[in-house]
Design a protein that fits this description.
75% of the residues lie in helices and 0% in strands. By secondary structure, the chain is an all-alpha fold.
Amino acid sequence: MAPSSPGTGNAAATTSTSDASAAPAGPGAPGPTRGLLPLLLVGNSAMYALYIGVAGVLLALQVEDVDPANKVANFGLIAGVSAIFATVFNPVAGALSDRSGRRNPWILGGGLAAVPAMFLLGFADTILLITIAWCLGQAVMNVYQAALTSVVPDRVSMTARGKASAAVGLGLPIGSAVGALVGAAFSDDYRTGYLVFGALVAAAAVLFSTCAREQRLPARAPLPVRAQLAAFAGALRDHDFRWAFIGRALLVLGYFAVSGYQLYILQDHTVLPDGMEPESAVALLMPLSSVAMVVSTVVGGYLSDRFERRKLFVGASALLSAIALVIPAVSTSWAAMLAFSVVNGLAFGSYMAVDTALVTMVLPKAEDAARDMGVLNIANAGPQIVAPFIASLIVSVSGGYTALFGVAAVLAVAGALAVRPIRGVR
């Protein structure tokens, strides 16, 4: 799943934090957050470590082992089908936890189930079996994710949501770095690597459910499908929100079209230094990009608050992403890939931090904020479904990755231009 937007109140949205020992705060209710912040950081970091390490490293290697000649098309198929599966399963899992009025049992169950799911994935030896096994892995991980992302709206007061979103947001760069390092460490033994990632998620789930005590909330009926479709259409009729949605979707599409194929890019496009393996290169690039992302998230958010200019920083971040994508398009050197990772990390971190703030300022109705932020998450998840298919088609038709970088850069520029029509925010 894609990185979600902080501060939402539905089950498929991002997480926030609350006190490990406090009773559920409910949206807007006062509640301390200190004890839950590190638990949510650990829980989200483990989740992203699995997503990045499995999908970005081990799965790519496994697909290549099964059918080296068709690895790009096969990987695009597996990633696309599993993304569809995850996008559908996430709200279903969220609705189930809503009905139960509990989060911890679903976090624990999904986390523990990651171990057998990763075990099955490691022993899949055909493209069909890999697809089925990874879809099962996505299913259990979305049970875990949907419940975890609902903790903050359940328990954290509105005044503490900023701290909660920051703690949760750090899970992406930290988890990405851990995922890349662990994935590279087990590149020659991906079966063991899969089990390590499953164990990380299981341990995080046990820690969270043990330490973050909760009280049962009133069960909530899920929103009917027709009402969900009406809400989606209604939110997008708002001028400013519609353009914010379009901009986010374009930028995310370009970002994941490239990031999903990073290992293959390093194998077939980048000229690595003598003696460096592509897996080792991933283990170096991902932490580098993650550090840049952390820095720009903090700095970008601060400066946009300081100057009260959201559109400027969102547009500039998207344009910076386009510049980053041009670097490896014009040079296949290792230095170019290093520069791309740093600049793209700076761009994406700043973009996600400031664009989320911008979106909260253009929501159509304050009383529907949680629902509409959930609609925005479609702009995160939807492009991830399309990106693998588009990327594999571009690479197959063009015969290389230069065209893929070019198309992604164009999408980033379009994302930058999409914020210009927004009228309600500077």
